[in-house]
Design brief:
The structure holds two protein chains of two kinds. By secondary structure, chain A is of the alpha+beta class. Chain A is built from eight helices and nine strands. Chain A has two domains: 198 residues, 2-Layer Sandwich (BirA Bifunctional Protein, domain 2); 72 residues, Methane Monooxygenase Hydroxylase, Chain G, domain 1 (Up-down Bundle), CATH 1.20.58.
């Protein structure tokens, strides 16, 4: 089974669970959670089911293509089910079986892990899912997002596609994975990892990134005032990515780090409050 | 009659299971006691998906006589003794014959009433009411909601099995009707199971690959580990906490014994074991204190016939070790000295500055301690260690495994070829992590450890961070206990109050609380930590109080004092001496200080007491100064005969004011000398009553 077979399999499975299959969002994000198809849709009262692939950028995880497991960009398969179905754990287990994993021969564990993202004012309770010790998914009952208590409660399931694929193909090196029958992960991604690692750690201009952060931050504030919440949120995502790049360039002190995260969160919380019809301020 | 309850949930965190079992046991005991249901046995069991209560309870309450009271007798009966309208009304409302009414005496006066036989309520009814109440009251370290309900619990709930006397209890919890059914192991045997008592429940679940008893699961793990390692003559590196957690993480334990490539044995053992434990909850394998290229994990599965679980874990561990090797290589490219410059950007505490600020303070505090401890030969090394000890916070390895802080710095310093005293001090400066943990093995490490902790404590108290109850955000208790433990273990003699003065001086204007106030708070805080440590070591609380009475000057002296008291406490001289000291304390209590004028000593007995005191005092002083309290105390017992005669023959409260003052002054100087050794007045002797003060925590 190739990466694209895996994606097709998950698409088919979650479509079968009533999920709408979204297309990848086109702004850099650190996690599938941050895209509007999750962020905005979990905030309101409406039921919502969605599944999509989202590249996740973590500049700090770059290893110049030399580490068999870590990459500065990987792919997540993100599922949101709102409200969380009572049988969601069983459904998740079925999704693994649907990929052809004979779970009877393995050790599947729901291991306590309470996910949180201070940048977007979000946290939840749940587990990391371990398959023979390998973390293949994050499973979270979302409690808060944008600083707002969520009701009904969405469940978020995030599959790490490369991890799962390494398990399925029984391979030790991410670059050996088959994306399709004749295109490998190496073909697609190795050069990108090398160049972006160089960019993330040494070549990116700190001055430019700082300016970009400040500009996006300012723009977000301006757009919020105009009640253009989706564009404002995009600006917050840009802030977040620029922040991550500054961080991997080693340009951020701990004090500054706390300050910048809180700057983004303030904007995001403001957006969430307005989106849900709350008043400005506080 | 047998009671069995199982709340089936999604996987609960181990800490939540522990919290729930405690509350369940207490909840059932309390509710059944209040409902007057006899508990013959009660125990709790658990798996990650099940909270289980099993017990043997009486079938119902005992039948009993019940008193029903009505209006006060004065209102219910007329002066003639006949029932008034109110009295008749009471009888009517309870449909009771008027002839059965009688006067009921209560603390509030006499009332009209009657007695009736009340049938005991069946236990099943009590349980139907108690079960949802007890379950609903469970609280967890972190609670969550799910679905569309506002109800909060540890993790979502999936079912309630609740039977009493073989039949389901007519009750429900959060929409789950109690049944006699549950589910087996999630993967290995997920079908329905029926159970009407503990024995059938245990057996049916075992068949479905669920072992309900944590103690049994732990035994299975230990036995499987031993079996796996026997041929190698090796041992799993002991880790009780990990074992306990794993026991609560699985329904059916299966020990996985795997290997990793020997090349990774080049990594320091600290890195290997941390990567295994923190990353993957694996036990390391050691033989003769040397790490072997094996590991042990615990899976939740009936077996691993195809070896897939083992191979999967091996692959994951290899990836982690590869990462660790990457960090180990990268980190060593930058010397610690160079890296330490980056500490300017790392915040220690908002008001206390960066880790660079802390480093500068540590150099001075550590240097001061070297001077005071006469450790001139290592002073330079200790100060160098202080300047480098926080640099590892900026290494990739410590960013990945924060538990390796300090140790990593020490290892990198060793790799750089720094002197042994330097790298050892860095390595050890977070030790001891707890009272059970070992103190630094090197003097340099001990000094740096004390300097680091004292800097944190003085700083935190100095900017108003408080320790109270369960809140101790800066780990001040652990730090203070660490300082005491290091001083005691390594017998380090330095004046604690002077050290405080020095640190306060180094902090200068940074602190927001007044110096005198900080110092008093520190002394008080350390007094309470020493009390905790010494009582934990088994010393009598009153002896500890007496040893702390003179205040904390030398930390080691507090221990020496209590040891001396403890050694003397059963000698025949001890009790009369204590009583005598108390007598003195009572006489001079609250009086202004008076001086002794030898010329005014009128009686022979008081002159003799005075001269003995002079001799005892001059002998005892040097012993006190060097902390030899055992001998000092032995010597002061010599005062006893003279004191006895003094009190027998001499009237302290003499008529002549000058003579009286002089005698009181004599007693005061005795008391003052004694207080240099211990506050004997705190010691409780036979025949005296004193409530034990609440242990300070």
């Amino acid at each position: 089974m190739s990466v694209q077979d895996l994606i097709l399999g998950l698409h088919r499975f979650w479509a079968g669970q009533g999920c709408y299959l979204a297309q990848t969002y086109d702004v850099e994000v650190g996690a599938g959670t941050m895209t509007p198809d999750t962020f905005f849709r979990v905030l309101d009262k409406r039921n919502w089911r969605v599944g999509y692939v989202q590249p996740s950028r973590r500049p700090d995880d770059g290893r110049y293509g030399e580490n068999p497991n870590r990459v500065q960009k990987h792919f997540q398969y993100q599922v949101i089910m709102k409200p969380s179905p009572a049988a969601i754990q069983d459904i998740y287990v079925q999704s693994l079986r649907s990929l052809g994993i004979a779970l009877e021969d393995h050790d599947l564990r729901f291991d306590e892990d309470n996910w949180e993202s201070p940048t977007i004012g979000a946290w939840g309770a749940g587990w990391q899912i371990l398959l023979d010790g390998l973390e293949i998914s994050q499973f979270t009952y979302f409690q808060q997002c944008g600083g707002i208590d969520l009701a009904p409660v969405p469940v978020e399931i995030t599959y790490g596609l490369e991890r799962l694929e390494m398990f399925l193909e029984q391979k030790d090196d991410i670059y050996d994975l088959d994306w399709s029958a004749d295109v490998s992960y190496r073909d697609l991604r190795l050069r990108e990892e090398k160049e972006f690692s160089e960019y993330n750690f040494t070549a990116a201009s700190v001055t430019m990134l700082r300016q970009a952060f400040a500009a996006s931050q300012k723009e977000a504030g301006r757009l919020i005032a105009k009640d253009l919440l989706l564009p404002a949120y995009d600006m917050c995502l840009k802030c977040s990515h620029n922040f991550n790049l500054l961080d991997s360039r080693g340009a951020i002190s701990i004090t500054e780090r706390v300050k910048m995260i809180s700057q983004i969160r303030t904007l995001v919380n403001d957006i969430a409050r307005r989106y849900t019809g709350g008043k400005d301020g506080a | 009659m047998e009671f069995l309850l199982e709340l089936l949930t999604e996987e609960l965190p181990a800490s939540h299971i522990r919290a729930a079992l405690e509350q369940l046991e207490a909840g059932f005991r309390k509710d059944l006691l209040e409902a007057r249901i006899d508990i013959r046995s009660l125990k709790t069991l658990a798996t990650p998906r099940r909270l289980i209560v099993a017990g043997d309870f009486a079938e119902g309450q005992e039948d009993r006589e019940e008193i029903v009271t009505g209006p006060p007798l004065a209102i219910a009966k007329g002066p003639d003794g006949a029932l008034t309208a109110a009295g008749k009304g009471f009888a009517r409302s309870h449909s009771v014959d008027e002839s059965l009414l009688e006067a009921i005496r209560t603390p509030k006066g006499e009332y009209l009433g009657f007695k009736r036989k009340a049938k005991g309520t069946p236990t099943v009814e009590i349980l139907a009411d108690a079960v949802p109440r007890i379950l609903g009251a469970l609280s967890f370290p972190k609670m969550m909601r799910w679905g569309s309900s506002p109800f909060r619990f540890s993790r979502p709930i999936h079912g309630l099995l609740c039977v009493f006397g073989g039949a389901p209890v007519p009750t429900s919890f959060e929409g789950f009707q109690a049944t006699d059914e549950t589910l087996g192991h999630r993967i290995a045997s997920p079908g329905r199971i029926k159970a009407s008592d503990l024995a059938s429940y245990r057996a049916a679940l075992e068949k479905s690959f669920v072992i309900i008893d944590p103690a049994l699961r732990k035994k299975m793990i230990v036995a499987q580990i031993e079996a796996a390692l026997a041929p190698l003559k090796a041992k799993a590196y002991p880790d009780a906490e990990l074992l306990d957690d794993l026991t609560l993480n699985v329904e059916h334990p299966l020990v996985i014994f795997g290997a990793f490539p020997e090349t990774y044995l080049n990594l320091p053992i600290e890195v290997l074991s941390t990567a295994m434990r923190e990353g993957q909850k694996l036990f390391s394998v050691v033989r003769d204190k040397k790490q072997l290229a094996y590991f042990l994990g615990v899976a939740d599965a009936p077996g691993d016939a195809k070896g897939l679980i083992r191979r999967g874990n091996e692959r994951v561990l290899r990836a982690r070790l590869e990462d660790a090797r990457f960090f180990w290589g990268q980190d060593r490219k930058v010397p610690l000295g160079e890296r330490a410059a980056g500490l300017k950007n790392v915040l220690f505490q908002e008001k206390l500055g960066t880790y660079d600020d802390k480093t500068q303070r540590l150099k001075r505090i550590a240097g001061y301690l070297c001077d005071k401890l006469g450790a001139a030969e290592i002073r330079e090394d200790v100060v160098e260690a202080a300047s480098l000890c926080k640099a590892d916070l900026l290494t990739d390895m410590v960013k990945e495994f924060s538990g390796l802080q300090g140790r990593m710095g020490g290892l990198y310093a060793r790799e750089e070829g720094l002197p042994a005293a330097v790298h050892q001090a860095i390595y050890e400066h977070y030790q001891p992590g707890s009272l059970e943990d070992a103190s630094p093995a090197s003097v340099a490490g001990a000094i740096l450890s004390i300097a680091d902790k004292m800097d944190s404590i003085v700083g935190a108290l100095g900017v108003g961070l408080q320790v109270s109850g369960s809140s101790d955000p800066f780990g001040l208790r652990r730090n203070a206990q660490g300082v005491c433990k290091v001083a005691l273990d390594r017998k380090l003699r330095f004046s604690f109050p002077l050290l405080l003065d020095r640190i306060l001086g180094i902090y200068g204007d940074r602190l927001t609380v007044g110096r005198a106030e900080i110092k008093a708070a520190c002394l008080d805080f350390f007094g309470s930590r020493l009390r905790f440590i010494l009582e934990k070591r088994g010393y009598r609380y009153d002896l500890v109080g007496a040893a702390l009475g003179p205040g904390v000057d030398q930390i080691v002296d507090v221990l020496a004092r209590v040891e001396a008291l403890d050694a003397l406490k059963s000698s025949p001289q001890f009790e009369p001496f204590i009583l005598m000291v108390k007598r003195i304390a009572n006489i001079i209590k609250g009086l202004p200080a008076a001086k002794v004028n030898p010329d005014l000593l009128a009686e022979k007995e008081e002159r003799e007491l005075f001269s003995t005191l002079s001799i005892v005092s001059s002998n005892a002083q040097p012993m006190i100064a060097r902390g030899d309290f055992a001998r000092a105390q032995g010597i002061i017992f010599k005062l006893q005969p003279e004191l006895n005669t003094f009190f027998d023959q001499v009237l302290v409260m003499a008529e002549d004011k000058k003579i009286r003052q002089n005698r009181l002054g004599l007693l005061q100087s005795i008391a003052k000398m004694l207080l240099g050794i211990a506050d004997y007045s705190q010691i409780v002797v036979e025949g005296e009553k004193s409530a034990k003060p609440k242990a300070s925590r």
